[in-house]
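Summary of Year 1 activities. Much of the first year was spent building the evaluation harness for sequence design. The harness presents a backbone, in tokenized form, and records the residue chosen at every position. We chose the following record to illustrate the format because it has been used consistently in internal testing since the harness was completed.
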């Protein structure tokens, strides 16, 4: 006697030759999308650490240039100030490849800006040490108006 079974479940039939059922599994694209999100998030965190990589060499150059007023120390300090300013204007372009749905870039961007701010503060401190930032009252003496006396008294001593 012949038995005909119309059961089409995956467990009862084998895959055809050259066909993989796992390639068309509905969970596979979700896993790949989740892995892509995790990878983008990890790459965004790596991008937020880039200022830290150059921070050590910048600090070393600021230290080695000395506190005297000469062209080399001024150029190195200006470079230490210009690099973070340029980085502040290019934050969105640095993190543009990692944008996507479900990828939070706020904290990596804030970390990127904070590390650049540390380098900028080091440059400001260096300018202050060199005496190029007016911090004392004596630095502003040229803009203080000279007050002329309203009366003059003279006396004689006999």
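For this record, the design step produced the sequence shown next.
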């Amino acid at each position: 006697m012949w038995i005909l079974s119309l059961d089409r479940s995956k467990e009862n039939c084998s895959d055809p030759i050259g066909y993989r059922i796992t390639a068309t599994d509905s969970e596979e694209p979700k896993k790949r999308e989740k892995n892509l999100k995790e990878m983008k998030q990890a790459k965004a965190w790596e991008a937020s650490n880039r200022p830290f990589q150059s921070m050590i060499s910048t600090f070393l150059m600021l230290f080695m240039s000395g506190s005297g007023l000469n062209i080399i120390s001024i150029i190195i300090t200006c470079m230490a100030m210009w690099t973070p300013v340029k980085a502040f204007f290019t934050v969105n372009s640095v993190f543009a490849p990692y944008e996507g749905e479900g990828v939070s870039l706020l904290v990596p961007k804030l970390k990127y800006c904070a590390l650049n701010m540390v380098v900028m503060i080091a440059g400001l401190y260096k300018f202050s040490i060199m005496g190029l930032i007016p911090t004392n009252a004596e630095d502003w003496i040229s803009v203080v108006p000279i007050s002329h006396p309203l009366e003059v008294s003279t006396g004689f001593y006999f």
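The longest helix spans residues 106-130. Quantitative recovery figures across the full test set are reported in Table 2.
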